[in-house]
């Protein structure tokens, strides 16, 4: 029996896709996206961010099982944009937000180091 590191559970295997999607035939303008090798971190980020878009009527995610790194994201739009379009836009916006957060954090961290060095002198 081999011991694998937790991070290895999030690495895609040969031929595995990160995201797949299908239309929900029961509800108009609704799609279900399956994210492989991801968990609550991304599921919650996407779901909460999608709520900010006026064209999104509903978004929620669920994990298949706590020990399986996979979740389903259900998105319903008002029809002005497809669910796939808003999920792609959401991912793009989240990457921009995280980039901005990283730059601001780094700037503040550097300023803190400068301030600490000035106090020591």
UniProtKB/TrEMBL annotation:
Compartmental location: Nucleus
One GO process term, biological-process aspect: transcription by RNA polymerase II
Top-level lineage group: Eukaryota
Keywords for this protein: DNA-directed RNA polymerase, Nucleus, Transcription
Domain called DNA-directed RNA polymerase RBP11-like dimerisation: residue spans: 31-103
Classification via InterPro entries: RBP11, RBP11-like, RBP11-like_dimer, RNA_pol_Rpb11_13-16kDa_CS, Rpo11-like
Xref: CDD domains: RNAP_II_RPB11 (cd06926)
Gene3D superfamilies per UniProt: RNA polymerase, RBP11-like subunit (3.30.1360.10)
GO molecular function, a single term: DNA-directed RNA polymerase activity
Entry GO CC: RNA polymerase II, core complex
PROSITE patterns in the cross-refs: RNA_POL_L_13KD
Keyword check for ATP-binding: no
Keyword Nucleus: yes
Protein family per UniProt: Belongs to the archaeal Rpo11/eukaryotic RPB11/RPC19 RNA polymerase subunit family.
Entry protein name: RNA polymerase Rpb3/Rpb11 dimerization domain-containing protein
The organism of origin for this protein: Lineolata rhizophorae
Lineage of origin: Eukaryota, Fungi, Dikarya, Ascomycota, Pezizomycotina
